[in-house]
Amino acid sequence: xxxLPGKKADIGVFGGSGFYNFIDIQEEINVETxxxxxxxxxxxxxxxxxxxxxxxxxxxxxTIPPQAINYRANVWAMxxxxxxxxxxxxxxxxxxxxVEPGDFVICDQFVNKTYNxxxxxxxxxxxxxxxxxxPYCPELRExxxxxxxxxxxxxxxxxxxxxxxxxxxxxxxxxxxxxxxGWEVINMTQYPEVYLAREMExxxxxxxxxxxxxxxxxxxxxxxxxxxxxxxxNANNEKLRKLLFALIEQIPGNRNNCGCSTVLEHSRI
Length: 269
What we know:
Elements: E1 11-15, E2 27-29, E3 42-47, E4 50-56, H1 71-80, E5 85-94, E6 104-105, E7 109-113, H2 138-150, E8 155-156, E9 160-164, H3 172-180, E10 185-187, H4 190-199, E11 203-213, H5 226-250
């Protein structure tokens, strides 16, 4: 039996590569889950009148590679803390010329190319099919796009994020194929994170921070390296921090303008 910590937070934020803290910590807690430990302890702080729970998905010292993250434990822990909105920024590569390094993309779709990841909370006995047709919360996306524009961040209002297994990056041949498919963004952590959050009826928002062009893009870019990814990502950290503070203050208290909180009503036979 796992003792729930009780209502502790309103908004959850997962930190990605190079983004390991952004709030003044008022409390740091460990949450036990039925799926094992989350990536790290969870930091709590305030932004305006909202309590925010922050968890670096790779751990504070970036010790957990993308294919080894305990996504179910991370999402379950956020839900157990009372979180109803989950913001999921991530470092990402661009698959299209017009999506430039330094841009932000508010993704609305994903394509999953990962394998062997635990990607559901519903292994039975109740058969549950949560639809991922629109995986990201439309209300949060709208607020994020407007807020980014208001504070002068170059933002793409939509985008499909391709999720690959990792830890390796794409070959040039793979990258050319992904570009030809018309997908905009490539990353290693959005799946199953976003789908698990949907199963938990959380409103979820992805903010993709473009750090580089993927290796096969138009055949004339240098192969991606992790050091270059972190260099550009670190340069964008202050922009992300500014966006998160402004965005979180704009999120309304109720969830009446999206269907995220009722997906299970339509998911069981």
